[in-house]
Amino acid sequence: MRHTQDIRPTRAGLFTLRNRLRLARKAHRILGMKRDGLMLEIIRLAEEVRAGHDLLMSRYARTRNVIAAAYMIEGTAGMTVAAYSVEVRPGIETSSRRILGVTVPEITGRDVRADLTGRGYGLLGTTLVIDDLADAYGELLEVIIRYAGNVACLTTLLAEMERVSRRVKALEFQVIPDLEEIEGRISRIRDENEREESNRLFLVKRKKERSEDAEERDRRIRPGDPDASPPVPEEQRG
Q1: Are 90 and 109 in contact (CB under 8 A)?
Q2: pTM (2 d.p.)
Q3: Residue 14 maps to a domain
Q4: Pick from 81, 88, 165, 202: CA 20 to 30 A from residue 4's CA?
Q5: DSSP bridge pairs for 107
Q6: Domain span including residue 74
Q7: Cβ-contact 100, 109 below 8 angstroms
């Protein structure tokens, strides 16, 4: 309970405690809204990841079929010549963007799909199966890069979601109840102290009033005192 260690049962301590309690409730509300927003974004992104995985599997199966057909038609020598003829190599670029205040990675491709003139091999020296293989390979790379970016983003959001959920639960089930309990305890202590102080002041006031009354009686019966009342004769007392 580090959040309540420096709280003292005083007026300043109660003021500090109530400020912390107000901030804790505000943080709980804001983090709850962030958690809900992350949940919606994760659900949307999970659908994209699932669809991307299905597309990746289908493109991968198609590419394997095209590769098998190309090896049957062109042979190993033709495939090797076509592969080494490529001049532009695809690349991957990484950057970052923010989603609901969370920095997530972004993966993009560079020169993933080349047109017919940029593939390096001669159009007359190859068959159409090489073009089909190049197209299938480029499409597969695009899907892989997009899928990898979505998975990396989803993984980051899931980690942030877990962290925010832990903070929300800590505020809801530990911090706020502890602060409320301490607030009630300090309020009860202050009420008791105020009642004791009121009783003490009342007793002091009563004692002072009795002392003043005694002094007034003494002044009235003191002899030689011009303000004192004259003594009553003994025969009139009966």
Answers
A1: yes
A2: 0.70
A3: yes
A4: 165
A5: 94
A6: 9-182
A7: no
Residue at 228 is within a domain: no
What CATH number has the domain bearing residue 160?
Answer: 1.10.287.3240
pLDDT by residue for the chain (238 residues), tens only, comes to 555 556 677 777 788 888 989 999 999 999 999 999 999 999 999 999 999 999 999 999 999 999 998 888 888 887 887 777 777 778 888 999 998 889 999 998 887 776 666 666 655 556 778 888 888 888 999 999 999 999 999 999 999 999 999 999 999 999 999 888 888 888 888 777 778 878 888 788 888 877 877 777 777 776 555 554 555 555 554 4
Dist. CA 161–CA 153, nearest whole Å: 12
- Residue 149 and residue 105: Cα distance in Å, rounded? 7
On whether residue 178 sits in a domain, the answer given is: yes
